[in-house]
C-alpha cells in the first residue's frame, strides 16, 4: 500500500508536468509556427512508439520473456479472439483515429485563442461529458452528485466565455476547448462500449495501431493543407523541430504515464494529476505574464475543477459516507461508555476510602 501511494505521488507529478509541458510548448511554438493540424498529425505519429516502449519494459521486468511477435499477438486480443485483421484494423481503428485527431486538433486551435490555463480548465469538463454520455448510451447508474458536477462544468464554461465579456475570440476559443472535451468524452465512451477495459499491453498495442493508421490514412490531409497554403511553411529546415519533437515526446509520455499509472497505482490519482495541470498552467502563465486573473475567470476555473473532483467520487460514495459517519458515532458512544465506567469506578473507590458503602438498587 505504501509503495502504491509513493508511485501514485510520482505519477501525479509526472502526469501533471507532462501535460503542462505539452500545453506550454504548443504556446511557444505558435510564436513562430502556426500549423495546428500538422502538429496534431506529427504528434499522433509518435504513438507508434508506444508498443516498443511497452515491450522494452516487458523485457526488463518479466521473468518469462516472449518474442515481439508473440507479445504483439497476445496484446491484439483487444480487437477480438482472432486478433488484428485488416477488416478490424479499418473498422475499429478508423472512428477512434478520427476522434483522436479531432480532440487534439480542437485543443490546439483553442490554445491559439485562449490562455493555457483556460484551455486546460475547460478540457477538464470532459469528465462531465463522459458521465452524461455513459448515462445515456451505456445506461450507467444515475448519480445526483455527478449531475451537480455536470451543471458546475456547464456553469464554468459560460463564466469562462463571460470573463472576456463574450469577446468573439474568447467565444470561439471556448467552443474549440469544449469541442475537444466532447470528442475526448465520446472517444472514451465508445472505447468502453466496443473494446471494454484494456490492460497496459493492449492499450500499448491500440495506441501504436492508432499511430500507424494516422501515418497511412491521415497523411494526405496535411499534404492538401500545405499545397492549398492553409498550413504552409517555407522549407522543412525552417520547421521548429525542437519544439515539435518536445511537444510530441511529452504528449506520448503523458499517454504512457496515464496507462502505466493505472497498473502501478490507483486510477483516481491519474485524474488528480490531470486536474493539477490547471494550477500548473496558471503558475506558468502568471510567470510569463500572459494571463490576468479577474474574479470571473478565477471563479470559473475553480468551479470546473471542483466539478471535475466531484466526478471522481465512487458510485457508492453515499453508502461509504454514511458507514463512515455511523462508525464515528459508534466510536464516540463507546468512548463515552468507557469514560462513564471509569468515572463510576473512581467514585466507588473514593466512597470506600471515606468508609461509605453504596448499595445497588434492585
UniProtKB/TrEMBL annotation:
GO cellular component, one term: membrane
The entry's keywords: Membrane, Transmembrane, Transmembrane helix
TM helices/strands, residue ranges: 6-26, 33-55, 119-138, 144-163, 170-191, 203-227, 264-284, 291-313
SUPFAM superfamilies xref list: Multidrug resistance efflux transporter EmrE
Pfam families referenced in this protein's UniProt entry, alphabetically: EamA
Domain EamA: from-to ranges: 7-161
Name this protein carries in UniProt: Solute carrier family 35 member F4
Species of provenance: Vombatus ursinus
Amino acid at each position: 500500500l505504501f509503495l502504491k501511494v509513493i508511485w501514485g505521488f510520482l505519477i501525479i507529478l509526472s502526469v501533471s508536468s507532462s501535460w503542462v509541458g505539452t500545453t506550454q510548448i504548443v504556446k511557444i511554438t505558435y510564436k513562430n509556427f502556426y500549423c495546428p493540424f500538422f502538429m496534431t498529425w506529427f504528434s499522433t505519429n509518435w504513438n507508434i512508439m508506444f508498443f516498443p516502449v511497452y515491450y522494452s519494459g516487458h523485457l526488463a521486468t518479466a521473468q518469462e520473456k516472449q518474442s515481439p511477435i508473440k507479445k504483439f499477438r497476445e496484446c491484439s486480443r483487444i480487437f477480438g479472439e482472432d486478433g488484428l485483421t485488416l477488416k478490424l484494423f479499418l473498422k475499429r481503428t478508423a472512428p477512434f483515429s478520427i476522434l483522436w485527431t479531432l480532440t487534439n486538433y480542437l485543443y490546439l486551435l483553442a490554445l491559439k485563442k485562449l490562455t493555457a490555463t483556460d484551455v486546460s480548465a475547460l478540457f477538464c469538463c470532459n469528465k462531465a461529458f463522459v458521465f452524461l454520455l455513459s448515462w445515456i448510451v451505456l445506461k450507467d447508474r444515475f448519480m445526483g452528485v455527478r449531475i451537480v458536477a455536470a451543471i458546475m462544468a456547464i456553469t464554468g464554461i459560460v463564466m469562462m466565455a463571460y470573463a472576456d465579456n463574450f469577446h468573439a475570440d474568447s467565444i470561439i476559443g471556448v467552443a474549440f476547448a469544449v469541442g475537444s472535451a466532447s470528442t475526448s468524452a465520446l472517444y472514451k465512451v465508445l472505447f468502453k462500449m466496443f473494446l471494454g477495459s484494456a490492460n497496459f499491453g493492449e492499450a500499448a498495442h491500440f495506441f501504436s495501431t492508432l499511430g500507424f493508421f494516422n501515418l497511412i490514412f491521415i497523411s494526405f490531409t496535411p499534404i492538401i493543407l500545405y499545397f492549398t497554403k492553409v498550413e504552409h511553411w517555407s522549407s522543412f529546415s525552417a520547421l521548429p523541430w525542437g519544439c515539435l519533437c518536445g511537444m510530441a515526446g511529452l504528449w506520448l509520455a503523458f499517454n504512457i504515464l496515464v496507462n502505466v499509472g493505472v497498473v502501478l497505482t490507483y486510477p483516481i490519482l491519474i485524474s488528480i494529476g490531470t486536474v493539477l495541470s490547471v494550477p500548473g498552467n496558471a503558475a506558468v502563465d502568471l510567470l510569463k505574464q500572459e494571463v490576468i486573473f479577474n474574479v470571473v475567470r478565477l471563479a470559473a476555473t475553480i468551479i470546473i475543477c471542483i466539478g471535475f473532483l466531484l466526478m471522481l467520487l465512487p458510485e457508492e460514495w453515499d453508502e461509504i459516507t454514511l458507514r463512515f459517519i455511523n462508525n464515528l458515532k459508534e466510536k464516540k458512544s463507546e468512548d463515552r461508555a468507557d469514560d462513564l465506567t471509569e468515572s463510576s469506578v473512581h467514585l466507588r473507590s473514593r466512597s470506600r476510602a471515606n468508609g461509605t458503602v453504596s448499595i445497588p438498587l434492585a
